Automatic annotation (TrEMBL):
GO molecular function: oxidoreductase activity
Any one Pfam family match given in the protein's UniProt record, by short name: Acyl-CoA_dh_1
Organism: Acinetobacter radioresistens SK82
Requisite cofactors: FAD
Domain Acyl-CoA dehydrogenase/oxidase C-terminal residue range list: 232-378
Name of the protein in its database record: Acyl-CoA dehydrogenase, C-terminal domain protein
Top-level enzyme category: oxidoreductase
Keyword Cytoplasm set for record: no
Key words of the record: FAD, Flavoprotein, Oxidoreductase
Domain of life per record: Bacteria
Sequence similarity: Belongs to the acyl-CoA dehydrogenase family.
Length: 384
């Protein structure tokens, strides 16, 4: 749903300019230094990028899902590291509170996420619990007005920068599956939290993941999201339904960028006495990529509109993530191929994008998990 086209167009124009004039020229620097420049973060704050999806009453822009995706298409056109810095505040780092939090939790945290004063992150994955999220082992044992958290969370995006963690932990050890899990919003400065060393990643340099370790970490009972035990897994799944649509849109933006670069290269690069773009085998890769991007774009927008109507989009969100991220991988591969040997050289941004976008098919649920969710929902519908 687009509430006001003119306002959205103004915002999109501003972001397009920011991406083109400020972010794209700094991509190489960020990747080389593996560091996000503070002046870029400050500009992001000034533009309101940390609060795109935070409701207006808590200081954000309160974008609808469809509006958010249009922004994600634009942001996707530059290195994913830039998006990642403000991505968790707009997605997995804040959504748990927005969707299921108490009024007190919303008032306490959302305005600070919206301004970028603090960064939120999402702690679901563990060393032994990835795709099988309901098997997580971190415990939260009630002790008077507190819960004592113990366990290790792994590959947590933005953890080294974060001031809060949305932590999924087992409050009822007798329930082995999803029903025993609760969600908490935990302040970084709580004693009993330590961080692992920053992970060395294949791509997306400039953003960080690491372990978050809870050792007898005592959090107040008021940290329990929604004040209700046992609904934390569902909270996490709802957060991911939304997050997966966002990643789908970022995949579309990244694919558009890679294809633009490959097209320009194909038009300029001459072999056999003519631009390689005049060869039909190159044209096939350009055309297939274009068609696939268009299909993914239509798909994610449709899913977003359904979500804005209040419909359950678990299936559509997984369909979009599966298709858009796999599409992005195929486009990345075609675009390296179009560049030939140059595509393997870091001077050309396609080499970096090829590595950066590989993560899209893994995080917030692998492609195989999306397939499982889609099929499961289909089968359940027949049973109902
Ligand atoms: N919204 C609301 N509730 C949901 C839901 C959703 N999208 N998906 C599942 N649920 C509910 C189910 O309805 C079920 O409720 P009941 O117990 O009341 O029937 C409960 O949650 C458990 O669901 P399910 O049986 O499907 O759980 P599984 O253990 O089989 O897990 C998958 C299913 C694979 C979908 C889940 O573990 C998953 O998403 N894994 C990937 C995790 C992931 O993306 N990690 C990435 C790291 S985070 S960046």
């Amino acid at each position: 749903m687009i509430r006001n086209q003119e306002t959205l167009d103004q915002l999109l124009h501003m972001i397009q300019q920011f991406v083109k004039n400020e972010l794209m020229p700094r991509e190489h620097e960020v990747a080389e230094k593996d560091e996000m420049p503070q002046d870029i973060i400050d500009q992001m704050k000034a533009l309101g990028l940390f609060g795109l999806t935070i409701p207006e009453e808590y200081g954000g822009l309160g974008l609808t899902m469809e509006e958010e995706l249009y922004i994600a298409f634009e942001i996707g056109r530059t290195s994913p590291a830039f998006r990642s810095i403000f991505g968790t505040n707009n997605g997995i780092g804040s959504s748990g509170i927005i969707i299921d939090g108490t009024e007190e939790q919303k008032k306490k945290y959302l305005p600070r996420y919206a301004s970028g004063e603090i960064i939120g992150s999402f702690c679901l994955t563990e060393p032994e619990s990835g795709s099988d999220a309901a098997s997580l082992k971190t415990t939260a044992v009630k002790d008077g007005d507190f819960y004592i958290l113990n366990g290790t969370k792994r590959y947590i995006t933005n953890a080294p920068l974060a001031s809060t963690y949305t932590v999924m932990a087992r409050t009822n050890p007798d329930i082995k599956g999803s029903g025993g899990i609760s969600a908490f919003v935990v302040d970084r400065n709580t004693s009993g939290i330590s961080l692992g060393k920053k992970d060395k990643k294949m791509g997306q340099q400039g953003t960080y993941t690491c372990d978050v370790i809870f050792e007898n970490c005592r959090v107040p009972a008021s940290a329990l999201i929604g004040g209700v035990e046992g609904i934390g897994f569902k909270t996490a799944m709802k957060v991911l339904d939304k997050g997966r649509l966002h990643i789908s849109a970022v995949s579309v933006g990244a694919a558009e960028r890679m294809l633009d670069d490959a097209l320009r290269y194909a038009v300029e690069r001459k072999q056999f006495g003519q631009p390689i773009a005049s060869f039909q085998l190159i044209q096939a890769m350009l055309a297939d990529s274009k068609a696939e991007i268009y299909a993914a774009k239509c798909m994610v927008l449709d899913a977003a509109r359904r979500r804005d109507q209040g419909l359950n989009v678990s299936t559509e969100s997984s369909c979009a993530k599966l298709f858009a991220t796999e599409m992005c991988g195929r486009v990345a591969d075609h675009c390296v191929q179009i560049h030939g040997g140059a595509g393997y050289i870091s001077e050309y941004s396609i080499e970096r994008f090829y590595r950066d976008v590989r993560l899209f098919r893994l995080y917030e649920g692998t492609s195989q998990i999306q397939q499982i969710i889609i099929a499961k929902n289909m089968i359940n519908q027949v049973k109902d």
